[in-house]
Amino acid sequence: MSDCIFCGIVAGSIPSKQVYEDEEMIAFHDLYPAAPVHVLIIPKKHIPSMLAVTEEDYVLMGRMTKVIQSLAQELGIAESGFRVVNNCGEEGGQTVGHLHYHILGGRSLGWPPG
Ligand code: AMP
Ligand code: ZN
């Protein structure tokens, strides 16, 4: 999608501090980190939200889970603990309409979320 920030990051037209890339997905540091470690992982494919995931994305979604595990190790938060968040829709707090998981860690995270 030409007006999508995250598609712009995938295309390289919007800069990002990338920490991972493969054929299907990229991960990069959040521009406004909410924790000492705050990385976003996104599919290269423009999927508007969690609600728009279809059966053809199931393998991709599983692979993203494996990459999240590896990133947690590499980012040094696997042992201490971390949180994986997807915000979906208005009340879920979604502000970018391209599916993404937040990977947050490096401090004790409160629960429930605000
Ligand atoms: P959400 O509110 O769940 O849709 O998350 C969107 C996230 O994208 C927020 O945490 C923003 O700080 C982050 N964000 C927005 N623009 C950029 C950008 N250009 N590079 C990196 N992160 C961004
Ligand atoms: Zn997009």
How are helices and strands ordered from N to C? HEEEHEHE
CATH superfamily: HIT-like
Uncertain segments? none
Query: How large, in whole angstroms, is the Cα Rg?
Result: 14 Å
Helical run tally:
3
> CA-to-CA gap between the ends?
31 Å
Average pLDDT taken over every residue: 97
Structural class of the helix and strand makeup? alpha+beta
| Shape label | globular
Count of the domains: 1
List the helices and strands and how they pair.
Blueprint: H1 5-11, E1 18-21, E2 25-29, E3 37-43, H2 58-74, E4 82-85, H3 89-92, E5 101-105
Antiparallel strand pairs: 1-2, 2-3, 3-5, 4-5
The structure holds adenosine monophosphate and zinc ion.
Describe the protein in words.
The chain is α+β, with helices and mostly antiparallel strands and 114 residues long. It has one domain: 2-Layer Sandwich (HIT family, subunit A). The protein is 25% helix and 22% strand. It has helices at 5-11, 58-74, 89-92, and strands spanning 18-21, 25-29, 37-43, 82-85, 101-105. The protein has a 5-stranded antiparallel β-sheet, covered by helices on one side. The radius of gyration is 14 Å and the shape is globular. The mean pLDDT is 97. Bound molecules: adenosine monophosphate and zinc ion. Zinc ion is lined by residues 1, 4, 6-7, 46, 98.
What descriptive keywords fit this protein?
114 residues; alpha+beta; HIT family, subunit A; five-stranded antiparallel beta sheet; 22% strand; globular; binds zinc ion
